[in-house]
Amino acid sequence: MDSSANHVTGGGVRWYDGGGRHLSCSRSSSCPHKRAGRFGMKVKQMGGLSRIVTALELVIILMRQNRILGSVTTVGWAVIIGGSSAALLGWNRGWLEFQSLAIMAGAALISALPFILLSPEHKADLALDSPRIKAGETAEGTIRLQAAKNKSAGATTIEFPVAGIVASFRVPSLVGESLHEELFRIPTSRRGIIQVGPVCSVRGDPLGMIARKKVLARQQQLYVHPEVVPVDMEAVGLLKDIEGITTSNLSSSDVSFHALRDYSPGDDRRSVHWKTTARMGRLMVRQFEETMRAHLLILWSTREQDYASNNDFELAVSTVGSLAASALLAERQVTIQTSVGELTFPNVLGLLDKLSGIERSQRGHDPRQAAIAFGRGPGISVAAFVTGNVAVPELRAAQLALPLSLRSFGVRCGENLEFARRRIGDLTVVDVDSLSKLRRALKDVL
Fold first, then answer.
1. Domain 295-441: which topology?
2. What is the pTM of this model?
3. Considering the chain, what is the average pLDDT of its residues?
């Protein structure tokens, strides 16, 4: 009998010799011995791959711990992704070329870390000559750089964004207390709030795989104020308090004398009229009529639909600024109500700061709605409507919503309007096409 025997397993014939050793398989792909051999090769290959993957993971962990991962550039991510892909292909397929690429990618990433971690620090100071300028002027400032802790600091690149545009310059090596200064200028053409800075140092490796930024000086704001012109407040009906309009309300203290009356408990003794008291034989005190205080209410339409262009809105901003600033400088009280709410400010500078950043609104009160909502505040003596090319009857309807005792006028702002003045009932409406004509337009407006 032949010493060999056949065994049928799973549809395939396997041949063994008398010692049970494997001879051949009719289906080599299903041979468990060959599969085991290939698996052994893959285990060895995967061992090399795992070492590369582990090395890449360590690099990424180190970068994450030192907050460098977010500073990886497009080139750096290309190296990381390309190196990982090369490692998978190289050790899975046994391709030495891709294994070499993976090793080179890992080495490049590791060599880039010292340029980021060991670079010397700088300290910086950002100073604007003035945080507020007028539209059309040029702002100037200085960036001062020194080595941190008065040690040595190598050359580095400084980035300095202004209104979203990034400027950069190279700083040489600094030793000890040596100082490096960079002067800059910011030209302006219109009002606004310009974000200046922050000043950042940019450190990176020679291959450009990692670029780490560090803020050295905080961001500052540059207020570009709108153009304003002085307006004669007496010409628009805002009298001084001592020249104010008297009312029928009686008061124990004011500037408009009304009559004498008998003393009542609680009256201020400073109001006692001693000559009359001596003649009458009883205490007599002065009584006054309340004087209307000079309080200007500006009802300003900021709705986008009321202005044909940006220039028309800029003219309205300058008109409001001119009226309010002139009133504040004359020590009058000013309230500004826009289509979306009140504009609050402590003084003239605060007013111009707010006007620097205001923009048109999509929605809000029309002039009549604003007059109904805000026109009945206490102590208001004059109301001014400031709009774009709004129809005059619409302003008249808004004026009728104000209290009868409140004097008012309107200013329409637009480049395409002709300089004119018209009167509808007791409402005067002036059209201005440039700020230079505002002072003449408001003369004797009430």
1. Rossmann fold (3.40.50)
2. 0.70
3. 80
